[in-house]
């Protein structure tokens, strides 16, 4: 008897929508956990009496976990049961996100964040490849669902942290993350078949997957990784050091996610209908403008909000880079290509946090931002421009 596969069942429009929502919501958990920690990081460190410089080191450990396991997650999609790979990743993220709320020293913090990164590294390419292959003709639009979910997590977590943390405790926001992950795992297990599709035999080996299009886009993503993690780790302290209150800072930071949710589907639709490389280039330009505004002298809440909207909106449109990577290789290596893309991104992320941390201590926030955020974003434009175009594939697998 033939097994039901995800691709077979996804031909039903209602099941397709349910599947996209459930799988994309894994990225809500990733965004929610990440911003809980990055928004609340300096407060967590002060509560457990640890030097604030550890924030950059912890961010590097988180990125290291993602980097090491990104390519594994992509390979799991290509070669192993997809649903179960996602469930294992969610279990790791959920467990160690919740344990983050109970850390008492720097050793626990670094270990737990590394292990959250482990699960995050695996789930990012798994979800991207899973969604992208459901409907190849609308690849970026389907992948955009994960961007919306991720940005919803980013946008909601500062409010949750501000609302449920106190001067001496921060466990409840991370418990909320754990409960959310548990519910999501149960729903995926009950609704999504374990077999994604009938596996194809690749026409070329893994060493032939690399090509100039994937390579240069990966370098663009590497530069963005430096800038993004420098921003994530230090933007809130920068705002507060500029005289903006914690509550106002939370509102400003949330606009990154709000802008991302608004522009994710329009940006993806444009990428599916127009030349995808040009849409990616546009996104890097918009994000670069946002970083420039971010570090203008005499920052105020209005300028900071404009900067975050530009960065968040550009980031949502930049999500086309995942579809570009998938279209640059044959179907049998889609997961591996996306895993490679995320691995390179997260090598940049490992550099971004410490670079910003050391630059802040030596030069102050504005010059540190120019070094660690503005410059890499401008270089991201350059490398995206070097990538040869790739043809869109619209066939159903």
UniProtKB/TrEMBL annotation:
Which UniProt keyword terms apply here? Cell membrane, Membrane, Transmembrane, Transmembrane helix
Major facilitator superfamily (MFS) profile domain residues are 19-391
Top-rank taxon: Archaea
GO molecular function (one): transmembrane transporter activity
Q: How does it sit in the membrane?
A: Multi-pass membrane protein
A Gene Ontology term for the protein's cellular component:
plasma membrane
User: What protein am I looking at?
Assistant: Major facilitator superfamily (MFS) profile domain-containing protein
Keyword ATP-binding among record annotations: no
Q: Where in the cell is it found?
A: Cell membrane
Q: Which organism is it from?
A: Candidatus Acidianus copahuensis
Query: PROSITE patterns, from UniProt?
Result: MFS
Matching Gene3D superfamilies? MFS general substrate transporter like domains (1.20.1250.20)
Does the keyword Cell membrane feature in the UniProt annotation?
yes
